[in-house]
Write a structure and sequence with these properties.
This is GlsB/YeaQ/YmgE family stress response membrane protein. Belongs to the UPF0410 family. The chain has four helices and no strands. The protein has one domain. Helices cover 73% and strands 0% of the residues.
Length: 99
């Protein structure tokens, strides 16, 4: 793999979608709440759900960017990406809390 291809590959992995900052906050809140329900969490409050959702969106977006063009994703793609990342994040937090 040459340097140009490697740079493009890494740049694609950090690209956000086209929903904007307010979109990320809305989607983050919804996906954080949904991930809490999926993982049978006790609920962390709306602010923590937004934080979990936004961090989850970053995690999910980073992981999926190696397989899909995440920059072209809209609201629905971003929601499912954030939900996937939020579930992964809550699963890791659950593992850390148990040990």
């Amino acid at each position: 793999m040459d340097v140009m291809a490697a740079t493009e590959y890494l740049a694609r992995s950090t690209t956000t979608t086209s929903v904007g900052l307010i979109g990320y906050i809305i989607i983050g809140g919804l996906s954080g709440w949904a991930a809490g329900k999926i993982m049978k969490g006790s609920g962390s409050g709306i602010l923590m759900n937004i934080v979990i959702g936004i961090v989850g969106a970053l995690i999910g977006g980073f992981l999926l960017s190696f397989f899909f063009d995440t920059a072209a994703g809209g609201w629905i793609f971003t929601f499912f990406t954030a939900l996937l990342g939020s579930v992964i994040l809550l699963w890791i937090v659950g593992l850390v809390r148990r040990s």
